[in-house]
Amino acid sequence: MPNMTAPVHSTGISRRTFLRAAGVCLALPWLESGEPGAAATAPPKRAVFVFLPNGVNMWKFHPETAGKDFALSDTLQPLAPVRDRLSILSGLQHRKIKGGHEEWAYLLTCNATGVGVASKHTAVRPNTISIDQHIANAIGEKTRWPSLVLGADGGRMTSSFDATGQPVLADFDLKAIFDDLTGADPNGRMAHRGSILDLVADQAKAKRAELGGSDQRKLDEYLDSVRSIEKRVQADQSFKQRAHGAIDQTRLHLQADPFKDADHTAYVDTLFELVVLAFQFDCTRVVSITTTRSEGGGPLKALDGGKDWHGQGHATNDEIAEKKPKEYAVLDTYDRFWHSRLTTFLQRLAGTSEGGQDLLRNTAVFFGRGMSWPAMHRSDNLPLILAGGEGLGFVQGRHLVFNNHPPLAPVNAAAPPPIKLAPDASSVSDLLRTISERMDVPAAGFGESRRTLDELAA
Amino acid sequence: MRSTVLIRCALGLLALAAVAGADTAGDARHLADYQRQVAPFVQQHCLSCHGPTKQKAGLRLDGPPPDLSDLAVAEHWLSAKRLVAQGDMPPTKEPRPAASDMVEFMAWIDAAAVRAAVVTRGGVGRRALRRLTREEYAATVTDLLGLTFPGAHIDLAGRLPSDTVPNAFANDSNLQTTQALQLRRSLDLAEDLLDIALPRPGTIVPLRYDIDLCALAAKAQATVAALPEDKRAKAVPQISNAAVPSALAGAKPAQLTVFGLRQPATQIDPARGVLIGSNPVITGGGVQGISVIFPSAPERGVLRLRAIAGATAEATDGAPRLRLNLAEVSYNLTGATVLYPCAEVAVTAPADAPVEYVLDIPLALINAEWSLFRRAKAYRVQLDNAAAILGPTPPPAQLAKDAKPSPPPRSLLLIRSLSLEIVAEPAWPAGSETVLAPPKTGEDESAHIRRSLIDFLGRAFRRPPREDETARYLALYQTNRSGGADLLSAYKTTIAAALIAPQTWYLMERKTAERQPLDPWELAARLSYLMTAGPPDAELRAKAADGSLKSEAELRRQVRRLTDHDRAAEFCRQFSRQWLDLDVISHLEPAFTSIRGIDQGNEIEWYERAIRADVLEEPAQTLLSALRGDVPVARLVESDQVVVNDRMARFYGIDGVRGPAWRQVPAPADRRGGLLTASSCIAAATGGKKRGEIKRGVYLARHFFGLDIPSPPGNADIKPLDIQLAEDRKLADISTRQHVERHISVPTCAVCHTRTDPLGFAWDSYDSCGRVRRTKDGVPVKADTSGRLPDSTAFADLDALRRHLAGDGSPFSETFAKRLFAYALGRGLDHGDGAYLKQIQAAAAKEGGGLRALLTAMVLSEPFRTK
After folding, report:
1. How far apart are CA B609 and CA B592, in angstroms?
2. CA B147, CA A19: separation in Å to the nearest integer?
3. How far is Cα A108 from Cα B57, in angstroms, rounded to an integer?
């Protein structure tokens, strides 16, 4: 059954206007006031990995010139307010992976082995660990939650995979995430959770002995889940002990429905806002967001500028812009939509202070798409943006060109063919590994990586 | 990261060795056989394309002996075996392997699969520990807590993470996993529901307003009558901000307003009450309804509406829907309003003999913007008529080009009187004796709780709890109690634990090394989750308790009984939704409700949702009707009947169907009966595309012919069809049909597409929503629906395809039986299941070959009754 509980907008006034008036404050924990001496220690290093669906209008994405003095190209204009806090990356791609529909599932794993084997079980198998989970495995113990895995589709539509290649389910329920985050616990349940989990773990262990080997395998998943919730409960409870401050709820539209056209902006902004909160509360230091799938139905589709985004991408046929003005115009709408949302997110991070610095400074933000030229789902010269993380050593405000990727010549021809990669070419794996290592988590051997991209920090 | 894969293979072998235990000699032989039978074969025939240098289709077959207990590895090797068996591999241009080599190669893979089955599910033909799906879990918890919310728009399963597995049923125990997020959200849900079932005393403030609309109407009429004569002619009766006294002492009055009526003089009727037009109306109108502003903003408890209501009957319209919404107070009624629809009921009683309708809304589960209500310390309960029925598409002959058709007359919803109540708890905790038994006189607390727990655990675990289990729960209760918790909260904590306990979460079946019959409790659970998608009811539990369920006669009786169970519809819903991949319908882009010439603008949302829900429901109801009527499976495609309710009838352009009940009626002239021309299947197949022939072909091949079509290879060096075609400079000169035919000319695609593409035009007379395609002038498009079956037999049109599907050795019936069997068993079909299926079909044929006979034979089959 479709979700019949979502509100009906019976007339024209936008839900956003309506909700903006809804600012209320809640008493909630606040890191800075809550942790004595927090300012004295160095702020934690963090990373956000954002998957964006589909390709872009490649004619309008990468800046024309490299270096510090680059001008933001057309669809990047919404990023102008945060231009100096980010870098546009050209010429990076996976080494072996060619285009396709499963790009969301390998963007963060860089695993070419299983690509294209559309398996019944997960989108890409055998998959391998994604970079966010790799980092979470190393530093997740330090925070309430090892990582936060989000996405409007939710469930198995996720870019995060654990060490065995299994998908880590993405959470989509804004209200529930918010309650978890803030430890709101309005019904006072946390106190009992420990004893409930003890009991069911006992029961599972007792049952385990009665089951055959094959079923023990299944039951172990249950036991692992119980243990992971137990850890969370303990972390959440100790979090609750801390002092309370105020949280501004005006930016949170927890009822926003990603399937509703009018709510798209509110949903994405709220999702990002929850990430800001998660960092403020130091709930986690690693986040992955699989915004939405590229193909077919699903949430966050249909902006005012045009529908069937994916199909329009195909329909451009990667021709010169003049030949397919309507199709490219639709792509532009989506590209600008996402870039505006990213700007809001980056501004929020930049506008939130922590120990005298802003949050963005200590947060590396990766915005990646797994497709470039959309018509054939090409994956060369991916449209990638790296923002923030200056505290991790990244130098921002540049357009960096890798692998000597030639600028897009304003020629009267369709998309140029992919360049031939040199054997030592840099790849997306190298970029992800660099982020990991800048967070002090070694990642040599990750995906197709051969080196770290030190030029990002020089 | 190849190394990881290798490590996993090695680990798998270790696991294999561990399970096989003493049989190390067998392991050694198995590995030696690999070196002898498989490695040379692979080396000679496969590695040039699927080895270290090339991995066509992402497949690499070198390396150590594969561990087929890894599902992905198994899929690779089993598909390799299948392709070799079919002669599709090695490719025809390559040398053929010797027959004896092929036999050995395939035999080893079979042996490996059998060994893997021992690791993953205890052996071939058995299933792994099965978890409840999210829908089953939600149904189980509500049932255990004795909660029902008829008519309420509450999607409990939707609060849990999705657990769909593409191309398989969510109940496939071999593919299911359990993750922390699922367990955590399930516990949240269980506790939310528990708070509704056992609310803390004193947290719910009772509230009640009884409203006689006839009296208010009379007052409004009297006000008009009292006006000076010159003003009276123009005046209309109004009910605006009428104070409604509380039925309970001490509470403030509520305010009632009737708004938006088009003809107040007749719609406000002292003799009958208030008549409300359908809402939102199709053209040119605002919202109409009744608004009651509560003087407080209760967020907990159950909001109960009792309305004496009826409907005026218009031949062109169906039954009105009495809908209850919550909304903020401070916005004007007909202007900017965000409505939170909470519940609705179809009103079928005639206006001259209205009856009582009741809606129960658990406020805590309503996903509204509560912070706004809280701030205003009040909210509005809005009642309206959400009939959301489509006007008939005007026949083109009667509609001049660009003419605006006038909407058809709509049925009015009459409300004579209503009562709105926040239900407070009765004396003993909150009406839920299902969860907490009332104490008996003379019984001490510990005996009372023990008695109550034993009953609850028995229902939760679907068998009587063992003494040590009960003791563990009692211990939790006692610990909480001695920690200072009162009876209710200590008990609730204990129940919450039971609701996510492994015995509840999984369908636990105690297995031994050998296959054994299920015990009666396990059988009752399998049967009820199959036929009701929920836990066993009292009768099934009784039959399990006295062991009578073991007898075939009793099993037959129970299948028969459950066929008529209310929740049999839920079984049909779950099965049809997953089997036919219908979920996409809720989110397709094209509107199902576009009515030519009628601008529905912003009013369309509710229509869309309502009609999509009905489109989604039609296959389930078709199935249910076939199940209850014991109709042969082939008739699901070859039928001249459609199963519709009033809205679906309007959607199909069928006249004379009134009321929300689903029923069988003759199919309209432009459509056949059954599933093959159901809007749902066509829409799901087309995926919202304008031209979806290729997708449609794949859908028909998969779902109606049962072919296993893999997704297109993402890394193949091929261009999407539309690109390839766009590049064809002669594009303008060739038809869509020719386009699609070129698709097959690409060898990589041809493997599958020669079998699927020629099916795709069979639905050419229907658009992406499954409506009949019409020209701009409204004339049905003349479509060529000919094509070829997957085995290349030509068919002339959709009817011929239908006959093929339903005819001799009906491929559809075959496919359906396989899918149903997999669903019934809660696992993918295994080696050897084919033989059982044959027996099942033979047994069903003896009893008339109906759907119920088929399901009965499945339930009686050995795979269903053993573990």
Report:
1. 9
2. 33
3. 21
How does B712-742 read in b/e, with b if 16+ C-beta sit within 10 Å?
A: bbbbbebbebbbbbbeeeeeeeeeebebbee
- Asked if B182's CB is within 8 angstroms of A200's CB, the reply is no
The full set of domain ranges for chain B reads 2-121, 126-201+434-508, 207-423, 581-805
Return the pLDDT at B322.
Answer: 94
A274: Cβ–Cβ under 8 A, 6 or more apart, which residues? A150, A174, A177, A178, A181, A252
* Dihedral in degrees, nearest 10, Cα atoms A91, A92, A96, A97: -110
Contacts of B76 in chain A (CB under 8 A): 117
Kindly list the distances between the CA atom of residue B678 and the CA atoms of B612, B685, B782, in Å, as whole numbers in the listed order.
Answer: 13, 11, 19
Q: What is the mean pLDDT of residues B594-620?
A: 71
**Residues whose CB is less than 8 angstroms from the CB of residue A432 and which lie 6 or more positions away in sequence, other chains included:** A49, A108, A110, A131, A366, A443, A446, A447, A449
Determine the distance in angstroms separating the CA of A237 from the nearest CA of chain B, rounded to an integer: 15
Question: What is the rounded CA–CA span in Å between residue B291 and residue B381?
Answer: 6
Query: Mean pLDDT: which of A215-229, B170-184, B219-233, B554-568 is highest?
Result: B554-568
pLDDT 10s digits, A148-207? 999 998 877 889 998 878 888 899 989 889 888 887 776 778 888 889 999 999 999 999
What's the structural domain count of chain A?
A: 1
Contact B511 A215 (CB under 8 A): yes
The pLDDT tens digits for B79-129 are: 888 888 777 788 777 888 888 888 888 888 888 888 888 888 888 888 989
Structure confidence by residue, pLDDT tens digits, B626-647: 999 999 999 999 999 999 998 8
Task: Pick the closest to residue B539 from B565, B517, B518, B519 (CA basis).
Answer: B565
Coil, strand, or helix at residue B414?
A: strand
What is the domain extent for residue A62? 22-181+247-457
- How far is the C-alpha of A220 from the C-alpha of B332, rounded, in Å? 56
Interface of A with B in 20-79 (CB under 8 A): 22, 24
- C-beta separation of B379 from B297 below 8 A: yes
Distances from the Cα of B680 to the Cα of A1, A182, B577, B635, B705, angstroms: 13, 42, 10, 17, 18
What CATH number did the domain enclosing A61 receive?
A: 3.40.720
Tell me which residue has tokens 């099916």. Answer: B759
Return the residue in A9, A218, A432 with the most chain B beta carbons within 10 A, the one to mutate for interface testing.
Answer: A218
Please give the ipTM for the structure prediction. Answer: 0.85
Which residues 173-232 of chain A have a CB within 8 Å of chain B? 173, 175-176, 187, 189, 192-193, 195-196, 199-200, 202-204, 206-207, 210-215, 217-219, 221-222, 224-226, 228-229, 232
Per DSSP, the residues of B762-825 read GGTTB-TTSPBPB-TTSPBP-----EE-TTS-EE-SHHHHHHHHHSTT-HHHHHHHHHHHHHHH
List all residues 6 or more positions away from A289 whose beta carbon is below 8 Å from its beta carbon. A48, A49, A50, A51, A150, A151, A271, A272, A275
Structure tokens at B254: 């509520």
**Cβ atoms of B278 and B328 closer than 8 Å:** no
Would A1 be classed as within a structural domain?
no
Residue A2 is assigned to a structural domain of this protein:
no
Per-residue pLDDT band at B292 (split at 50, 70, 90): very high
User: Per-residue pLDDT for B755 more than 70?
Assistant: yes
Mean pLDDT of chain B: 84
